[in-house]
């Protein structure tokens, strides 16, 4: 009976140690990503999301290169739970890309890996300016002259309006001053009469 208890206790210790080892040594690896490994995306890529199967630390990094080995700049990296979100400085144009990642797991162990995807986005249309013909240039010159004449007419109207306003203000000021002088004279005469 005593041996059975010891055997059972030993078995529990071994099983507990195995369970702790599995939990403690569960390293962090990418199990999903957006874009996914091998995926062909039909729009420019501005953000990458790497989902890890275990917790990661902010020391995790990503390097994105194209088929020629040119590296693309990362604007911002954030850890949100088990997700590592990468904002790029510029959208990735059409081409094949390799993402190399290095993660520091919550358990303190480092892991690394890579995945690939393709961007097959339609090219942005570039609108070319049409050549300006002599006739178009003459029309544009005529329009500019008309606008300048119109601006000159507006300035003349504005100056005339300013002069009218100025004349009206001068008359108003003269009227107020005259009113004050007359009122002062009346007050002076009344006060002299009362003294006499």
From TrEMBL:
Organism listed in the record: Geomicrobium sediminis
The protein, known as: Methionine-rich copper-binding protein CopC
Keywords from the named record: Copper, Membrane, Metal-binding, Signal, Transmembrane, Transmembrane helix
Spans annotated as Disordered: 128-169
Signal peptide: 1-21
Localization: Cell envelope
Stored SUPFAM superfamilies: E set domains
Domain (CopC) ranges: 27-119
Chain segments annotated as transmembrane: 171-190
Name of one Pfam family that matches: CopC
């Amino acid at each position: 009976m005593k041996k059975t208890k010891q055997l059972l206790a030993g078995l529990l210790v071994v099983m507990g140690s195995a369970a702790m080892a599995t939990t403690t040594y569960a390293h962090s690896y990418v199990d999903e990503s957006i874009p996914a490994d091998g995926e062909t995306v039909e729009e420019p890529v501005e953000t990458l999301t790497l989902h890890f199967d275990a917790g990661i630390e902010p020391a995790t990094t990503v390097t994105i290169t194209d088929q020629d080995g040119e590296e693309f700049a990362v604007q911002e990296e954030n850890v949100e739970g088990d997700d590592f979100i990468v904002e790029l400085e510029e959208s990735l144009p059409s081409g094949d890309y390799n993402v190399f990642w290095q993660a520091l797991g919550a358990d303190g162990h480092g892991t690394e890996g890579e995945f690939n995807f393709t961007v097959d986005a339609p090219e942005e249309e570039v609108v070319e300016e049409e050549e300006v013909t002599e006739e178009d240039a003459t029309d544009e010159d005529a329009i500019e002259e008309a606008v300048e004449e119109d601006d000159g007419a507006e300035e003349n109207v504005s100056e005339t309006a300013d002069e009218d306003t100025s004349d009206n203000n001068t008359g108003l000021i003269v009227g107020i001053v005259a009113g004050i002088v007359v009122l002062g004279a009346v007050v002076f005469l009344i006060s002299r009469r009362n003294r006499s």
